[in-house]
Amino acid sequence: MTQTESAYSEMVERVRQGRLLAACMGLLSWDERTYMPRAGGPLRGEQMALLAKLYHERLADPRLGELLDQLADAPLGELEQACVREVRRVHHRAVKIPKRLVEELARTTTLAQGVWVEARAKSDYSLFLPHLQTIVRLKREEAQAVGYDQSPYDALLDEYEPGATVAQLQPIFTALADALVPLIAAIANSTVRPDRSIIERDYPVDRQRFFAESAAAALGFRFDAGRLDVSVHPFCSGLGPGDCRLTTRYHPRRFNDGFFGMLHEVGHGLYEQNLDPQHFGTPLGEAVSLGIHESQSRLWENQVGRSEPFWRHFFPRARQAFPEALAEVGHEAFYLAINEVTPSFIRVEADEATYNLHIILRFELEQALLADQLQPADLPLAWNERFQQLLGLSPPDDARGCLQDIHWSSGGLGYFPTYTLGNLYAAQFMAQARRDLPGLDEAFARGDFAPLRQWLTQSIHRHGSRYRPDELCRRVTGQPLDSSIFVTYLRDKLAPLYRL
Ligand code: ZN
């Protein structure tokens, strides 16, 4: 074995052990959110803190730094170079952020999340304000420690979306807002009104569960290598080859929560299940970014799951499963009801079109907070003013305004843009899949999702983190991310529905 080979294999072994620790944390965290008895919280907290410490030590291990230095100019293949590049990114982040700051952030955000729950319940921003002030200050320190070229916000973005910058995102998001605001206004003025009552009727939970699991299997989620359980907030936890845990939530009088929650998580789950197992433990066997991950969930949830051909297959089955709710309902009325577009206050309940305006608002406010152009004390006012401009509504209270999301209390500044990136990438990937795979709609109508799933696996899943998100996008679609593809998709779908 050459020196380079032995350095590379030692690096892989070390990184792989770190990944195994992360999988242990993932499993404990899945259990915490699904089956753990309430009283188990304090013990779980200790277990998680210990594993997090061990994990951080692995990432920041000076020996890993030495190996990365040895490999910096070594003659490596393209795959190995990509692996070294991503390991270096994570190692540098772990090394550059001082331990004191990591601990202070952990302490502050643990406390802040508890306070946030109370502040949101009481809609009392003043409770949360001092915590947010501290978090913004610490995140500013983190950005300085990590370093950046242009904007401190870039340093935070990079944790979730490697390589993304404000300079790259700003024009994309501005163009998107400029296109969405008039489209949403035109829909508001349409005489077509979806009948929402169709999807807010009796949908017995046991049959919802059966229907959702059958659909997940039809889309290609492997239940011999995964599960679908119930939690308050749906999530996907990919632990490694052969074990991917999804959750959704069922409401006895709302169809969308359970079914579309499942579709979203199945999209994440298919990504995890189709990563290359031979690269497990290294970046080559891991999802490349949150934005690309979200593109997979949004693609199945919206591009596929809210399409007309999808329901040509599933609507007759839904009628059989839920005769009380759907016996008298037609395919078109149902299709319109699941595609209702209307401005609302809560991001997680927003539809496909208005959703991105919620994100753009947060993207702007986070940058202003970090740059000290907006004081946390002035956040509610700034939120409400901008919300009115973007969505035409005035939040009645802070619970339905700037207190609604958990992200800031947990220190997740820079996370929100990945949701919109996911929507945009999803539209761009799907447009390419339609070019590469003629007859896709006919396949959906037959209940055949294998061609699309296999295309996604070959184009995206199998590469893991080999390519950065923007490079992956160019390779798959032949061009950089372009928000106009998403806007065209929305217009083509919504204009006939709403007779615009
Ligand atoms: Zn998601």
Describe the structure in your own words:
It contains 21 helices and three strands. The protein has helices spanning 3-34, 41-60, 62-72, 78-96, 99-122, 125-146, 152-160, 166-188, 205-219, 255-273, 290-304, 308-321, 323-326, 331-337, 355-370, 379-391, 417-436, 440-446, 450-459, 469-477, 483-497; strands at residues 226-230, 236-240, 243-248. By secondary structure, the protein is mainly alpha-helical. The mean pLDDT is 96. Bound molecules: zinc ion (ZN). Zinc ion (ZN) binds next to helix 10 and helix 11.
Break the fold down into its secondary structure elements and pairings.
Blueprint: H1 3-34, H2 41-60, H3 62-72, H4 78-96, H5 99-122, H6 125-146, H7 152-160, H8 166-188, H9 205-219, E1 226-230, E2 236-240, E3 243-248, H10 255-273, H11 290-304, H12 308-321, H13 323-326, H14 331-337, H15 355-370, H16 379-391, H17 417-436, H18 440-446, H19 450-459, H20 469-477, H21 483-497
Parallel strand pairs: 1-3
Antiparallel strand pairs: 2-3
Helix pairs in contact: 1-2, 1-3, 3-4, 5-6, 6-7, 8-21, 9-10, 9-12, 10-11, 11-17, 12-18, 15-16, 15-17, 17-21
C-alpha geometry: globular
Q: Any idea of the CATH topology of the largest domain?
A: Neurolysin, domain 3
Order of helices and strands: HHHHHHHHHEEEHHHHHHHHHHHH
Topology, number of strands? 3
**Uncertain spans:** none
The CATH top-level class label of the largest domain: Mainly Alpha
Beta-strand percentage range: under 5%
Instruction: Let me know the average pLDDT.
Output: 96
Properties at a glance:
500 residues, mainly alpha, Neurolysin, domain 3, 2 domains, 3-stranded mixed sheet, 21 helices, 65% helix, 3% strand, binds zinc ion
